[in-house]
Amino acid sequence: PCRPFHGYNRLLTSQIISYYESIHQHKKELPEYFNFASDVLDEWSQLEKDGRKAANPAFWWVNEEGEEVKWSFEELGFLSRKAANVLSEACGLQRGDRVIAVLPRVPEWWLLNVACMRTGIVLIPGTSQLTAKDVLYRLQASKAKCIITSDTLAPAVESVVPDCQFLKSKLIVGKGSRDGWLNLQDLL
């Protein structure tokens, strides 16, 4: 499985260099707006569907226990659109709104990154080592309207929620449920 990656990467690298040189020489117009999710991910998904690109994983995650999650470009695109709908509809977020994600590096972390790119929502990543005081500072300073965290980190967030006037929704990643929290897996 590594050989197609390496061969394809060389081709991709030469294409990127060629494209960069054409832009540098003013032979190509720079786009006014660029969105990685729609301009790259969705394009690669379509190339896979049409058989013009070999099917390789767009995302491949393995944890310490050996559990794997593999998504094709099409799957990542589909799931990121669903996650974007969760952020827009269930959480009530709009383009330019800020969301803080305090998560370990689970697959949903990357999924939510792409969903935020897709919708124009500003993602503020936070490490799972943040204390309640750290979370409070980030929520107040950023004026984030949503926080996304795991069921194990939710109690620290709940302890500071009363001091966060801009926070409108709380999204939990995991199998657990908590009062006042939306569950990402249920909504997906």
From TrEMBL:
Record GO terms (molecular function): ATP binding; fatty-acyl-CoA synthase activity; medium-chain fatty acid-CoA ligase activity
Catalyzed reactions per annotation: a medium-chain fatty acid + ATP + CoA = a medium-chain fatty acyl-CoA + AMP + diphosphate
Keyword Ribonucleoprotein on entry: no
EC number: 6.2.1.2
AMP-dependent synthetase/ligase domain segment(s): 55-174
Keyword Lipid metabolism carried by entry: yes
One GO cellular component term: mitochondrial matrix
Keywords attached to this entry: ATP-binding, Fatty acid metabolism, Ligase, Lipid metabolism, Nucleotide-binding
GO BP terms in the entry: acyl-CoA metabolic process; fatty acid biosynthetic process
InterPro entries associated with the record: AMP-dep_synth/lig_dom (IPR000873), ANL_N_sf (IPR042099), Mitochondrial_ACSM (IPR051087)
PANTHER family per record: ACYL-COENZYME A SYNTHETASE, ACYL-COENZYME A SYNTHETASE ACSM5, MITOCHONDRIAL
Entry similarity comment: Belongs to the ATP-dependent AMP-binding enzyme family.
Name assigned to this protein: medium-chain acyl-CoA ligase
